[in-house]
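Hey, I'm writing a tutorial for new members on how sequence and structure tokens pair up, and I'd like a real worked example in the thread rather than a made-up one. If someone can provide the structure for the chain below, I'll link this post from the tutorial.
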Amino acid sequence: MMRSAEVPSPPVPGPGPRRPDAPAAQHPRAARDHVVAALAASAAAVALALGPGVPVRAPAAPLTPGTPSACALGGPGCAPRVALGVGTAGLPTSTAGLYAFEQALGRDADVALTFTSFRYPFDVAGLRALAEQGTTPLVTWEPWDPTVPEDDRYPLAEIAAGTHDAYLRDQARRLREVGHPVALRFAHEMNGSWYPWGADVRGNTPEDYVAAYRHVHDVLADEGVTDVVWVWSPATADDVRAADLRHLYPGDAYVDAVGVSVYFDEPTDSWATTAQPTVDELRRVAPGAPLLVAEAGVLPGPRRTAMVRDLLEGALSVPEIAAVTWLDVASREDWRISSDPAALDVLRTALDDGR
């Protein structure tokens, strides 16, 4: 199983410079509209029961593809079909790394990957500033305190039982204050063992995870939060087999898009062996759902450029994939490609392919 990138949750203080020439968004970034459009356009959008108690995805009313409201995150009929996401240190409070990446690539990001935890409130001003510049925030919301990672201060059972509802309702208020759509990735990589909410960690069961996810969703909905795209986001299995994810899936009524973390952290990794088995499993578990490569990275080394090309070509070959998000940070590996011209050129070429 691929290990998380382990991005620290605390925000880096101090806002980064805004792009002086960046125009205000001409249209609100209606990410949920894109999700509906992608569901309608995808050939895989079929009604399929996923087991007892799991709702069936209903066909969505079609929207006109290619419009700004329908293409905030890419998708069929959009140009580009696959949106560019970028995660840099300090987002959303500090945007310096994001804009440096965009300048090096020669293209603005469509999605900004951020991380926060239950220890911290959402940065309303930072999220709003990203959205107003035309970038959809993808917030990874981690139920732990990263300053004491050995502790399980927010157990799944407590979340499901409502113990932390005061915090959740405060965050719901903050999301409403953003005033723009936000993609929310709660308790990601739950099929791994490196986070306290992971499957089989500290006695967790799949039922515990599903109950906690659904409770968080329902509290925010009860508080009137409507501009949220709910992203359920496992990690890839690091071999030719993919874990059975059905029992960890919260259900179609709770998931708008499916994400996956894809890291090549061995020189022999490839899309076919590292990512495709999990992507195939996700297409079975959530048929018709847009797929996001919610985190991607390739370790440094002589094969990096070829591996970046393989990852991107693999992602672009999957019709349901609507966005690829590159994590441009140094954590357990130095995933940054912002200073790697050859890797950046591969990314730029792949994005310009128009596929």
